[in-house]
User: Which sequence fits this backbone?
């Protein structure tokens, strides 16, 4: 989800300015309808919706004009694929609280990737996390809520901070157990806050310690979502397009 889609119109589809085009994505359990913006008479742009599973969906290009019936201009298949970021997000979500798995992730720290790779990883994994269907009882600290803050252990927050993943850290902070993870020491006596300070991650330290800290700049900050029951409406300010998602 959240990639830019370009639609090329054929000569016969290039019509007057009062025609509005939109795309309808129909999956097995979820349907999305996105508005588009015209780049030029022959091209449209929109944002791909974040889908709930990896599958091939049917996408229809529709045209609407006041006083006329909605016209289906073209239909095509569109595939949501499972990539490394999706796999990583699923793995991390599953291993929340699993000490063996969390300690395993620490080997990534020994071969620190370049800053550009970290930024790419951060954006992709945080985006994948946003689109995961996390269980209602999911918690950053794992399933065992009987553990106290005094028990040293590794957490997902330690993982995100150790690698300097700003956007993933922000996402985890908004989840149950996110704030509580900030005061938990690992076996070396480090909290996520002290790790950020020790490694010189100033923006990350600010994010963890300031109450009014804002979400880090990313593609996701260009959008605003409103939920209502089985419906959600998302506005992408960058392209000024809207997306209606309905659970069937």
Assistant:
């Amino acid at each position: 989800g959240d990639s830019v889609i370009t639609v090329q119109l054929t000569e016969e589809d290039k019509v007057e300015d009062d025609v509005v085009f939109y795309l309808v994505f129909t999956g097995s359990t979820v349907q999305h309808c996105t508005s588009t913006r015209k780049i030029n008479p022959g091209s449209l742009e929109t944002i791909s919706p974040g889908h709930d599973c990896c599958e091939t969906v049917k996408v229809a290009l529709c045209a609407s004009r006041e006083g006329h019936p909605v016209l289906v201009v073209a239909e095509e298949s569109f595939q949501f694929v499972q990539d490394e970021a999706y796999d990583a997000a699923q793995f991390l979500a599953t291993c929340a609280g699993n000490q063996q798995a969390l300690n395993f992730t620490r080997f990534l720290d020994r071969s620190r990737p370049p800053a550009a790779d970290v930024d790419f990883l951060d954006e992709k994994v945080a985006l994948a996390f946003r689109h995961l269907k996390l269980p209602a009882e999911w918690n950053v600290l794992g399933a065992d809520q009987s553990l106290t803050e005094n028990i040293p252990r590794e957490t997902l927050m330690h993982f995100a901070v150790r690698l300097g993943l700003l956007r993933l850290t922000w996402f985890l902070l908004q989840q149950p157990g996110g704030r509580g993870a900030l005061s938990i020491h690992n076996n070396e006596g480090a909290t996520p806050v002290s790790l950020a300070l020790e490694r010189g991650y100033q923006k990350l330290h600010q994010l963890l310690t300031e109450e009014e800290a804002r979400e880090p700049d990313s593609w996701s900050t260009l959008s605003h979502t409103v939920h209502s029951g089985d419906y959600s409406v998302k506005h992408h300010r960058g392209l000024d397009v809207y997306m209606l998602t309905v659970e069937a």
Q: What stands out?
A: The chain has two domains: 3-81+223-247, 84-214.
